[in-house]
Structures are given as structure tokens and as C-alpha cells.
Amino acid sequence: MLYIESADNYVQVWYLNKGVVTKFMLRNTLKAMEETFEGTSVLRCHRSYMVNFEHVKVIRREKDGVYLEFGVEKVPDIPISKTYSEKVTHWFMCYSSSNE
User: Fold this and answer.
1) Of the four listed, 4, 26, 38, 64, which is most buried by Cβ atoms within 10 Å?
2) Where would I find the H helices in the chain?
């Protein structure tokens, strides 16, 4: 799984299937998905997105904000909102230092 995108009372789960980016729609909320993935590498980074940080290649800062890159064709850069930036940064620092 790459990331989860909110679509009202549904979520779209984006994943790689034999190297092809594929999506699957579930009737669920991002809030419920956040609770399901608590304690994993899948974190909420925006009001509309949760990201599997095991697949993030680059965290890029630009004038208009911070973005996550997957390095996978046809996968957009996912924004990190100010609301979630501290949590994401903290998790990323702890996760990367525990893998050294």
C-alpha cells in the first residue's frame, strides 16, 4: 500500500499491483483508518491523506509547503499539512534512527 485518500465517507486505497498503481475504494472514513493503522508506518499527514512511510523516497520542502515523494510514476506528491507536520516529523526521526 502506498497511500490512502479521503473521498467523503469513502477512502481510496492506492497500492502497487505487479508494478502498476491501482486503487480500491472502501466505505470508511479516514479517521477510522487512522485508528486501524495506529502503531504502524502508515500515518496521517493531511486532512485528506494517510501515507505508508515505508514507500516514501523523499520529503521535499517548497515555498508553499512540505511534500512526500514516492518515486513511482503516476503517483502524485502528497502534501504534509501544518496540523500533522510535527507528528510526522517526530515519527520519521524516531523511525529512521531506530533503523540505523
Assistant:
1) 4
2) 30-36, 82-98
